[in-house]
Amino acid sequence: MNSPYFFKPLQRCGLLTLVLWLWVVPTQAQILDVQQKGSHLYVIGDQNRQVSSMPIGSNDEFLGTSSTFFVVRKGSHLYTYDERSRQIASMPLGSKDSFRNAAGNYFNVQKGSHIYTYDRHCKQTHTRPAN
């Protein structure tokens, strides 16, 4: 059988190559919603199916979600999680700081008279005055 050049390695490695490729190449599901029911958070993804869940402590607070991550306050820290409820990152949150919102790949925290924008990895990307 004459196959294009780029298929020859796949013919030799076959199923193992396919399995490794599927394992290494991540696919990211969209988060449609995160719902808190009792002491658990439930992540709803594509086709309105539950993708994952995680326990949430009585003193913890679910703050918001975007299409790629959600934010939970635990004590004096903010934590970001992916659609599989795996922690992405964390950052300290001052007692007078307040979470504003999450959208796209970013979330906002107001600190005094300024709003700070962070990415899902809790890296600051922008600062602007709070009006």
Describe the structure concisely.
The chain has helices at about 10-15, 15-25; strands at about 35, 40-45, 50-55, 60-65, 70-75, 75-80, 85-90, 100-105, 105-110, 115-120, 125-130.
Mean of residue pLDDT values: 87
Give the tally of structural domains: 1
Q: Specify the overall morphology.
A: globular
List SSEs in N-to-C order: HHEEEEEEEEEEE
Question: Portion of residues in helices?
Answer: 10-25%
**What is the end-to-end distance?**
69 Å
List its traits.
11 strands, 131 residues, mainly beta, four-stranded antiparallel β-sheet
Provide an overview of this structure.
The protein has 131 residues and is mainly β. It has helices at 8-13, 15-24; strands at 33-37, 40-44, 50-55, 61-65, 70-74, 77-81, 87-92, 98-103, 106-111, 114-119, 124-129. A four-stranded antiparallel β-sheet has the order 4-5-6-7, with no helix packed on it. A four-stranded antiparallel β-sheet has the order 8-9-10-11, with no helix packed on it. Strands 1-2-3 form a three-stranded antiparallel β-sheet, with no helix packed on it. Strand 10 and strand 11 (124-129) form a beta hairpin.
What topology emerges from the helices and strands here?
Blueprint: H1 8-13, H2 15-24, E1 33-37, E2 40-44, E3 50-55, E4 61-65, E5 70-74, E6 77-81, E7 87-92, E8 98-103, E9 106-111, E10 114-119, E11 124-129
